[in-house]
UniProtKB/TrEMBL annotation:
The species this protein was found in: Chitinimonas lacunae
Role: Catalyzes a salvage reaction resulting in the formation of AMP, that is energically less costly than de novo synthesis.
Sample GO molecular function, one term: adenine phosphoribosyltransferase activity
UniProt-listed HAMAP family: Aden_phosphoribosyltr
Phosphoribosyltransferase domain boundaries: 50-156
Subcellular location: Cytoplasm
Quaternary context: Homodimer.
Pfam families given in the database record: Pribosyltran
Name used for this protein in its record: Adenine phosphoribosyltransferase
Pathway terms, separated by semicolons: Purine metabolism; AMP biosynthesis via salvage pathway; AMP from adenine: step 1/1
Enzyme Commission (EC) number: 2.4.2.7
Reactions catalysed: AMP + diphosphate = 5-phospho-alpha-D-ribose 1-diphosphate + adenine
Record's keyword terms, sorted: Cytoplasm, Glycosyltransferase, Purine salvage, Transferase
Length: 182
């Protein structure tokens, strides 16, 4: 957790949408965090303050909400930003990785020249549920020879086991808050 703020400040501003995108799923909607200028600034500052002294070459954001946070953090850290996209969205040569979601499967892609061997990458997404997206993105980065120095997200849903799986892959993980139950 960030020492800058009480994690409840962020958690209390995340909207829960029941039964979306399917019955039984409690969707954690971060858009209220982004809509309020003060909350958005606090959110970004939590990550920027954590990583401003880390040896990071590039920030990678996961499609789509990871783009929002990742691009702003990259800008504030004076680092480049690379998008990890859903299959078929990148126009250049790509590497791809398929993974399982909480309610299906998907594929993510990264431009083949997005990172260089030895680059230290901060990987950002909005939340960690089953861990599939984060692990798939990390594998893409690693396949290109770069190192995921840390993965980060706003929310951890620990009951779904994703944060444990990410850490079991040897990827350090930082989250600002967590929700019990999904």
């Amino acid at each position: 957790m960030s020492s800058l703020i009480d994690p409840r400040y962020i958690r209390d501003r995340i909207r829960t949408v029941p039964d979306w995108p399917q019955s039984g799923v409690q969707f954690r909607d971060i858009t209220p965090l982004l809509q309020d200028p003060k909350t958005f600034r606090v959110l970004v500052d939590c990550f920027v303050h954590r990583y401003m002294d880390h040896d990071i070459d590039v920030v990678a954001g996961v499609d789509a909400r990871g783009f929002i946070l990742g691009a702003v953090i990259a800008y504030e850290l004076n680092r480049g930003f690379v998008p990890v996209r859903k299959k078929g969205k990148l126009p250049f040569d790509t590497v791809a990785e398929e993974y399982e979601l909480e309610y299906g499967s998907a594929t993510v892609e990264l431009h083949a020249d997005a990172v260089k061997p030895g680059d230290r990458v901060l990987l950002i997404d909005d939340l960690v549920a089953t861990g599939g997206t984060m692990i798939a993105a990390a594998r893409l980065i690693q396949r290109l020879g770069a190192v995921v120095s840390e993965a980060a997200a706003i929310v951890d849903l620990p009951e779904l086991g994703g944060s444990t799986l990410v850490r079991e892959q040897g990827i350090p993980l930082f989250t600002l808050c967590h929700f019990a139950g999904h």
